[in-house]
Specification:
By secondary structure, this protein is an alpha/beta fold. The chain contains four helices and eleven strands; from the N terminus they run E-E-E-H-E-H-E-E-E-E-H-E-E-H-E. Helix 1 runs parallel beside helix 2. The longest helix is centred in the middle third of the chain and has 18 residues.
Length: about 200
C-alpha cells in the first residue's frame, strides 16, 4: 500500500510517503500564510517517487484552521486525480516524541486551551476545550505523563515543544490506527463556529 501523509496544522509543515511500510519521502517546510506555495513542490516530489497512491492521510489538528484546510484541499485534488482514499487523524496523536503516552495541549483562543490524552497513537480523551484553571486540574490529574505543545504557552511553561510528524501519521494510517474520518474530511473543531450576522 502507498500512503501519502500531510500535516500543515502548525508552522511546521510535514509530508511523508510510505510504500509497503518503507519510508520513501520525509520532508518538512515552513507552513505560514503561503503554505500552499511551499506544500505543492513537496507533493510533486512525492508523486514523482510514487505516481500511484492508495491513501492520503491528513492531520486534522487542532491547530491552524487555514493550514488544515489547505491540506484537505490538496488531498481532495489527489483523490479526484488518483482515486486515492482519504483518511484523517488528529495531528496531536502523531507528535514527534518517543513517549508512548502523553498529554497534548495548546492555545484554543478566547482565553481557552485544548487538552488531549494520547496513548499509542490514539486520543483516549479529547481534544477538548478547557479554561486555564480546568487545564491545570487536568494536568495535575495526569502528572506522571509528559506534556507537549506545538507553540510555547506562557501559562504552562513546563510543556515541551513537540510537532506533528507526517511519518507518524502515515504509519498510523498504515496500521489503521487512530483514524477519525474517511472520505469527507474537516478540521477538528474545538467549538461551534462563531458567525457574526451582518447589520441591517
Amino acid at each position: 500500500m502507498t500512503i501519502l501523509a500531510i500535516d500543515t496544522s502548525t508552522h511546521h509543515g510535514t509530508v511523508a510517503l510510505l510504500v509497503d511500510g518503507e519510508l520513501r519521502l520525509d520532508e518538512t517546510f515552513t507552513a505560514d500564510r503561503r503554505t500552499s506555495a511551499a506544500l505543492f513542490p513537496v507533493l510533486e516530489r512525492a508523486l514523482a517517487a510514487a505516481p500511484r497512491l492508495n491513501q492520503v492521510a491528513i492531520g486534522l489538528g487542532p491547530g491552524s484552521y487555514a493550514g488544515v484546510r489547505i491540506a484537505i484541499a490538496a488531498a481532495i485534488g489527489l483523490k479526484l486525480g488518483l482515486r486515492a482514499q482519504l483518511v484523517g487523524l488528529p495531528s496531536v496523536a502523531a507528535l514527534e516524541t518517543n513517549a508512548p503516552a502523553y498529554l497534548a495541549i495548546g492555545d484554543a483562543r478566547r482565553d481557552t486551551f485544548y487538552f488531549t490524552h494520547v496513548e499509542d497513537g490514539l486520543c483516549t480523551a479529547g481534544p477538548l476545550l478547557a479554561t486555564a484553571g480546568e487545564l491545570h486540574t487536568l494536568l495535575a490529574a495526569h502528572s506522571a505523563l509528559p506534556v507537549f505543545t506545538s507553540v510555547p504557552l506562557p501559562a504552562f511553561p513546563s510543556a515541551e515543544i513537540a510537532l506533528p510528524s507526517a511519518v507518524r501519521l502515515a504509519r498510523l494510517a498504515h496500521a489503521g490506527r487512530g483514524l477519525t474520518a474517511t472520505g469527507d474530511l474537516e478540521p477538528i473543531y474545538l467549538r461551534e463556529p462563531h458567525i457574526t450576522q451582518p447589520k441591517r
